[in-house]
Specification:
This protein folds into 2 domains: about 300 residues, Rossmann fold (3-Layer(aba) Sandwich); about 110 residues, 2-Layer Sandwich (Dihydrodipicolinate Reductase, domain 2), CATH 3.30.360. Strand 2 and strand 3 form a beta hairpin. The chain is built from 15 helices and 13 strands. With about 425 residues, the chain is α/β, with parallel strands linked by helices. The protein starts with 11 loop residues before the first strand and ends in a 10-residue tail after the last helix. This is Inositol-3-phosphate synthase.
Length: about 425
C-alpha cells in the first residue's frame, strides 16, 4: 500500500440536480431519510459494497469509505432546477413513487429544496409544458445564467464543492456534428451564435458546471458531454465528467446476462427488448425524436459484448430490437420483457425469456448517489475528463470513438475496472486484470 493523494472530503458538498421529478426526488428523499436513520440506502455500492485489498495473509475486505475518503451523507446539500415550480416535497408527492410514511419525516427539508428556473427549449422535449423557465435569448445567455445559479447556491449554502447531476428528461437526439462539436472554440462560438440545432440545453448545463469547477454527470442518453469539445472543456477546467444514461433495469440485466451467453460460447440469433413505463420519462420518450436518443443508448450495450469479429460463428447478423411504450397506469413501476433466441450444439435453437417488473426511480436513486459521491472523489483525486471507471453505472459509457475505442459494456469487466480505480485512489495495488 502506498500513501493516497486524494484530498479529504471537508465541508459541504452541493449536489445540484437538473430535474426535480421522480428520480431526483426519490434520490433526495432517500438520502435525507438515510441520514436520519429512517431508511437504508439499499442498492448503493458506496454504502454497501466491499472490495478486497491485499493478498494472502494481508487480504481484507473493506467498504469504499474505508478505502477512500467519501463525502458523508450528512454533508450533502441539495439544489435543483426544473421546468415546474413545485418544491421537492410537492414533486415527491406528485411523482407517486414513495409512500407518505417515507416522505413525511423529511417534509420540512424537502420543502426547502425549491427548484430554480430551468434552461429549457420545448423543441428538445415537446411533451413537457413547464413554464418555470429562464428568459434567455441565446444558448450563451443560458450558460451565464446557470453559472450565476451555481455561484449563488454555493455561497448561500456554504459549499466547498459542487457536483452537477442530470436527472431530467431525455432530449431529442442530437447527432454529433464535428463542425460544431469537435473543439471547445467551435462549441463556444455555436453557443454565442445561438445554434439551437446543434446545442442542446443540457450542453449549457454541462458547460456551466465545468466552468464553475463542478464535475458533471449525464444521467440520460443525451449527446451532451459525449463530444470532443466537452472533453476539451473537462481537460481545461481539470474536472471529471461521466455519462451517459443511468443503467437501472433492462440494460443492467442485459449487461449481466449477455456475458453468460458469451462465456458459455452459445450463439445468438436475436434479442428483442420491450418496456412499458408511465412516469414523466415515459411521457417524454413517447415522442419519437426523444425515443431515438434512448434507442441509440440501449442498442449499444449488446454489440460490444457479443462481437462478430471475435466469434463469427456465434454472433454474426443477430437481430437486436429495443422498444419503449408509454403506459400511464404503471407510473414509475416499469416492466421490461426480453425475448432471447439462442442456438447451441449443432445449431439447435433455444429461447430465454426475462420479465423484469421493476421500479424505475428505486433503481436509479442509488445509482445517483454512487455517481455523485464517486465523481466528487474523482475530482479530489485529480482525475480529469471521462471517468471510465464509472461505466458500471451507465447504460452507454462514454468513450473516445474518434480513436476507434470500443466501450466496455460487460458488467463484470466494468466492476473490475471500478474496483481497481477505488483501490488505486486508496493507495492500494490494482490487482485484477481484464482478459
Amino acid at each position: 500500500m502506498t500513501k493516497s493523494n486524494v484530498k479529504p472530503a471537508t465541508s459541504k458538498l452541493g449536489v445540484m440536480v437538473v430535474g426535480c421529478g421522480a428520480v431526483s426526488t426519490t434520490f433526495m428523499t432517500g438520502v435525507l431519510m438515510a441520514r436520519k436513520g429512517l431508511a437504508k440506502p439499499v442498492g448503493a455500492m458506496t454504502q454497501y459494497d466491499k472490495i478486497r485489498v491485499g493478498k494472502g495473509d494481508d487480504k481484507k475486505y473493506l467498504s469504499y469509505g474505508e478505502i477512500v475518503p467519501l463525502t458523508d451523507l450528512n454533508d450533502i446539500v441539495f439544489g435543483t432546477w426544473d421546468v415546474y415550480p413545485a418544491n421537492a416535497f410537492e414533486a415527491a408527492v406528485n411523482a407517486d413513487v414513495l409512500k407518505a410514511k417515507d416522505i413525511l419525516p423529511v417534509q420540512d427539508e424537502l420543502e426547502k429544496i425549491v427548484p430554480m428556473t430551468a434552461c429549457f427549449d420545448k423543441d428538445f422535449a415537446a411533451r413537457l409544458d413547464g413554464t418555470h423557465v429562464k428568459d434567455c435569448k441565446t444558448r450563451w445567455e443560458m450558460v451565464e445564467a446557470l453559472r450565476n445559479d451555481i455561484k449563488e447556491f454555493k455561497a448561500i449554502n456554504n459549499c466547498e464543492r459542487i457536483v452537477m447531476l442530470w436527472a431530467a428528461s431525455t432530449e431529442v437526439y442530437v447527432p454529433i456534428n464535428m463542425a460544431v462539436h469537435d473543439t471547445l472554440e467551435h462549441l463556444e462560438a455555436a453557443m454565442k451564435a445561438n445554434d439551437t440545432k446543434n446545442i442542446a440545453p443540457s450542453m449549457c448545463y454541462a458547460y456551466a458546471a465545468l466552468a464553475e469547477g463542478a464535475p458533471f454527470i449525464m444521467g440520460a442518453p443525451n449527446t451532451t458531454v459525449d463530444i470532443p469539445a466537452m472533453w476539451e472543456m473537462a481537460e481545461k477546467t481539470q474536472m471529471p465528467i461521466c455519462g451517459k444514461d443511468f443503467k437501472t433495469g433492462q440494460t443492467l440485466v442485459k449487461s449481466g446476462f449477455a456475458p453468460i451467453i458469451g462465456t458459455r460460447c452459445l450463439g445468438l440469433n436475436g434479442w428483442f427488448s420491450t418496456n412499458i413505463l408511465g412516469n414523466r420519462d415515459g411521457l417524454v420518450l413517447d415522442e419519437p425524436a426523444n425515443f431515438r436518443t434512448k434507442e441509440v443508448s440501449k442498442l449499444s450495450t449488446l454489440e460490444s459484448i457479443l462481437m462478430a469479429e471475435k466469434q463469427p460463428d456465434l454472433y454474426t447478423d443477430y437481430y437486436h430490437k429495443v422498444r419503449i411504450n408509454y403506459y400511464p397506469p404503471r407510473n414509475d413501476e416499469k416492466e421490461a420483457w426480453d425475448n432471447i433466441d439462442i442456438f447451441g450444439w449443432m445449431g439447435y435453437p433455444m429461447q430465454i425469456k426475462i420479465n423484469f417488473l421493476c421500479r424505475d426511480s428505486i433503481l436509479a436513486a442509488p445509482v445517483c448517489l454512487d455517481l455523485v459521491l464517486l465523481s466528487d472523489l474523482a475530482a479530489r483525486a485529480g482525475k480529469v475528463g471521462t471517468q471510465r471507471f464509472l461505466s458500471f453505472f451507465l447504460k452507454s459509457p462514454m468513450h473516445d470513438y474518434t480513436k476507434g475505442e470500443v466501450p466496455v459494456n460487460h458488467l463484470y469487466q466494468q466492476y473490475t475496472i471500478l474496483k481497481n480505480a477505488i483501490r488505486e485512489m486508496g493507495g492500494y495495488e490494482a490487482d485484477e486484470e481484464l482478459d
